Predict the structure.
Amino acid sequence: MAEKDEKKTPKSDKKAATPKRFVWLLIAFAIMFIACDSATSPTPSSNSVLNITSFLANQTEVTPGEVVLLMVDYEYSGSDTVEIQWSSNQGKLIHTEYENCAQWTAPEVYGYHTLSVSASDGVYTSQAYIRVRVSDSGGIDPHN
């Protein structure tokens, strides 16, 4: 009979090990879930800064068809790629080979035209605006 008691002891040890395995599996799945969730849902760093520091035009009063050179500078403390977008309400924008420069050709429409630029890392965006006056005399107003 003593042999039967010895055989029962290992069986009871196996059953005690099963709840431990279950706990370890639950912990492993929890770690995987947390790691996967944080990888697909990035949280922006509270100390990342994206700020346009200057937006310049080589001239702000032009005649129709005249080209205005635009330049933007920004500061960014993050590690993502920053994308620059240029826009205007009229005229023609041409992106140059340099990311922070563009050319705008004034339209045939007189008046003030708004040119804008935005810098974005996909989470944060900074914008700036410039108004350019288009007239028949450029910077000279014949009526004043």
